[in-house]
Design a protein that fits this description.
Strand content: 25-35%
Order of helices and strands: EEEHEEHEHHHEHEHEEHEHEEHEH
Distance between the termini: 37 Å
Radius of gyration: 22 Å
Number of domains: 2
Number of helices: 11
Number of strands: 14
Oligomer: single chain
CATH superfamily of the largest domain: P-loop containing nucleotide triphosphate hydrolases
Structural class: alpha/beta
Strand order of the largest sheet: 6-7-8-3-9-10
Shape: globular
CATH class of the largest domain: Alpha Beta
Helix content: 25-40%
């Protein structure tokens, strides 16, 4: 499998602060690769190094076989960036936003015209080509940002919180279009605080915290490895968990998050526990998900 991005012993320091701590990972061409972690984990620093906007402290980082230390111009031609913050030009209508941006890549007028029309159609914005930016909904603006990032036909798309602030319907429209990009062979590196988004879109995921990679696998593999099939959530149970443990003839693992206790065990053992606890403390037996993985690995919620 061909490699789009390869990091070897990659580190980034800001004075005495270690933002990225000697990490190694590879992104395969044509996959959607998730980079998950709490605020301050090192995600943004890693992204900035990939996009050649921040120098490495040590290690090696290759993008399409090019070294970020000395081949930045060539690397940038391969990359499209969808920022978390909306930086569309408010003084230009939709179509002109795309046309002006495309000129930065030295595309000729005929090619710009064709690419702009293509992207407007793909992202369902053709009927808003002449609309002012302030008239667009949040979902339309996010789609326009993605369309803009694809104008120069990049092979790698960096997506920093691509659906932040969108309602569920708008998020699903963006998801559909990102899935199509994967089918078209566009490599995607995705950061997100929405765990259902990561499960839906990512082929593989790394979880990073304090600059170190804690886990790497496919979403379902991470869930099975660190949590299992199901989780028993019990409210207001932290004072009773030790008593429960002593009453069982098998071991359990658990985490306490605020007023909620999550218990991890096999499905059969979770059923036994459910039968033992007081009726007033009945918990919720639910399917395990990526947020459970994240909480187990970091002890922190993604949005802080």
């Amino acid at each position: 499998m061909k490699t789009a991005i390869k990091a070897s012993n990659l580190s980034k320091h800001f004075g005495n602060i270690v933002a990225v701590d000697n990490i190694n990972f590879s992104v395969h061409r044509g996959e959607c690769f998730g980079l998950l972690g709490p605020n301050g984990a090192g995600k943004s620093s890693t992204i900035r190094m990939i996009t050649c906007s921040s120098p490495l402290t040590s290690g090696q980082l290759m993008v399409h076989g090019l070294n970020v230390n000395n081949e930045q111009r060539s690397i940038k031609s391969h990359i499209g960036i969808v920022p978390q913050n909306d930086n569309l030009d408010p003084d230009l209508p939709v179509k002109q936003n795309l046309e002006v941006y495309a000129r930065y890549y030295g595309l000729n007028k005929q090619l710009i015209r064709r690419r702009v029309e293509e992207q407007l159609e793909i992202f369902e914005l053709s009927d808003r080509a002449n609309s002012p930016i302030h008239s667009l909904s949040g979902g339309m603006r996010r789609r326009l940002l993605i369309a803009r990032a694809l104008l120069h036909n990049p092979s790698i798309l960096i997506l920093d919180e691509p659906t932040v602030g969108l309602d569920p319907q708008a998020r699903h429209i963006v998801w559909r279009q990102l899935r199509q990009l994967t089918k078209n062979g566009v490599t995607q590196v995705l950061t997100t605080h929405y765990m259902d988004e990561a499960e839906q879109l990512c082929d593989r995921i790394i979880v990073i915290n304090h600059g170190k990679i804690l886990a790497e696998a496919k979403p379902q593999e991470l869930i099975q490895q660190y949590v299992g099939n199901n989780v028993l959530e019990i409210p207001n149970f932290s004072n009773d968990i030790e008593l429960l443990k002593r009453s069982l003839d098998f071991t359990i693992e658990y985490e306490i998050f605020g007023d909620k206790t999550n218990i991890y065990a096999s499905d059969d053992n979770l059923s036994i526990i459910s039968a033992k606890i007081e009726t007033s403390s009945k918990g919720n037996l639910r399917k395990a998900n990526l947020e459970d993985v994240f909480l187990r690995l970091t002890g922190r919620r993604l949005v802080e």
